[in-house]
Specification:
By secondary structure, this protein is of the alpha+beta class. It is built from 2 helices and 7 strands; from the N terminus they run αβββββαββ. It is about 25% helix and about 55% strand. Strands 1-2-5-4-3-6-7 form a 7-stranded antiparallel beta sheet. Strand 6 and strand 7 form a beta hairpin.
């Protein structure tokens, strides 16, 4: 009976350790930002890649965060629902951001005044990956 208890405890510890280790190895990359919506209700379509370098399938249950352009707030982003990422592969998350009117105005002004490659876009947030909260901070130059 005692050996069975140790066996079950060891299996549970191994299971939890494997989930924790995935959270430390998840790779999120900001791929693109594209305008969408209408003039009265603008949106920004955000594509973010998630890479799964492990040998197990994982589920992304939610992702939330904010987008900034040159360190100025642009919009909040959130998506809820399971998305499966196969082992040793990459999947694309498609998110929709709804910016504030002031955020859109400031960002357009920044884009028009800056030279190509000088506008910094930052996504800062977190993702729930198999029940583990993984922080994300990703910056891309446009």
């Amino acid at each position: 009976m005692k050996n069975l208890f140790y066996l079950i405890g060891g299996a549970a510890a191994l299971f939890l350790l494997s989930r924790f280790r995935f959270g430390q190895k998840a790779i999120f990359q900001l791929r693109s930002l594209r305008p969408g919506g209408s003039l009265l209700q603008p949106t920004i379509n955000v594509e973010m890649a998630v890479q799964n370098p492990t040998n197990t399938t994982i589920k992304i249950k939610s992702i939330t965060g904010s987008i900034s352009v040159n360190d100025r707030f642009l919009a909040n982003v959130s998506a809820f629902g399971d998305q499966t990422v196969a082992p040793n592969s990459e999947s694309t998350l498609r998110l929709v951001a709804r910016p504030s009117a002031l955020g859109v105005f400031e960002s357009v002004r920044e884009l028009l005044n800056a030279a190509a490659g000088q506008v910094s876009v930052t996504f800062s947030g977190s993702a729930n990956v198999d029940g583990i909260v993984v922080p994300i901070t990703e910056t891309r130059l446009l």
